[in-house]
UniProtKB/TrEMBL annotation:
Keywords: Hydrolase, Magnesium. The keyword Acyltransferase does not apply. Its cofactor is Mg(2+). GO terms for biological process: small molecule metabolic process. It comes from the Bacteria. GO terms for molecular function: hydrolase activity. It comes from Flexivirga caeni. This is HAD family hydrolase.
């Protein structure tokens, strides 16, 4: 049998894979908390005339990026500084204020120290990596973050050198959901896409992107699980502890089957 095999305990799947690719933000690391804390510091530095409550809302708007600047960055249509500048202009326009001439420098000076300080690895990450190593399952990382930020995150959290090779948005000049980045990461592992699982938290970039590239997706939803049935179900987990690692690949326990909601 190929793809997802119904050989795991009732309610679960077995994925006959030889390798696992891992997303970083909100899969390995609590990026949302770090982004909001650092964003709050940055918004207060940029526009001190607003209240703390407004700074929180501004940081959330920046993180959600309603203008799609990060998506354009993933496609390779802009660079890191342009992406940041576009998001700041969106926040400024929403609150009716000008963007300071040195906005990017102010933003980075306030954001980066707090972002580094707030990095946290989820408790299930290292045990999962150890189980993969014991079972001979190859592991690597594929993230839409930059080389520089990813290196800083891993250095801060002690993940450097523990999760195999790292493919970032900078590797090819574009990121997920482009199927080429998934295939590139698989080639680096020496494993075919069909023999590789991809674990990530974003439906479009991670689930749909990896599936289009021929990988076997697992959707991790750490903030809570959707449970709407889908004709072609994707395994849904809330924790890496729900993955049993063995010689035949991954058993996905306590399975949820979900499609995106909203």
């Amino acid at each position: 049998m190929r793809r997802s095999e119904s050989l795991a305990p009732p309610g679960g799947f077995r994925l006959p894979v030889r390798a696992v690719l891992l997303d970083v933000d909100n899969t390995l690391l609590d990026n949302t908390t770090a982004m909001l804390a650092a964003g709050l510091a940055a918004m207060a530095a940029l526009w001190p005339q607003f209240t703390a409550e407004q700074h929180v809302a501004m940081a959330e708007r920046y993180r959600l990026d309603p203008g799609g600047a990060f998506e354009r960055y993933m496609r390779g249509d802009n660079d890191y500084r342009v992406m940041r500048a576009e998001r700041l202009r969106d926040v400024a326009a929403a609150y009716g204020v000008p963007v300071p001439d040195d906005a990017l420098e102010i933003y980075e000076s306030a954001f980066r120290p707090v972002f580094a300080q707030e990095q946290r690895t989820f408790e299930d990450v290292i045990p999962f990596a150890e189980r993969c190593a014991e079972a001979g399952l190859r592991v690597a990382v594929l993230t839409n973050s930059s080389d520089e930020l990813t290196a800083e995150k891993f250095e801060r959290t002690g993940l450097t050198g523990r999760l195999g090779s790292i493919t970032t948005r900078d590797t090819l000049g574009f990121g997920k959901p482009d199927p080429r980045v998934f295939r590139h990461a698989c080639a680096g592992l020496g494993v075919e896409p069909g023999d590789t699982a991809y674990i990530g938290d974003e439906w479009a970039a991670d689930v749909e992107g990896s599936r289009a590239a021929g990988l076997q997706p697992i959707w991790i939803t750490r903030g809570g699980r959707a449970a709407a049935p889908e004709a072609d179900p994707v395994p849904v987990i809330a924790s890496l502890d729900q993955l049993r690692v063995g010689e035949r690949g991954l058993e996905v326990l306590d399975l949820g089957r979900a499609a995106p909601t909203g």
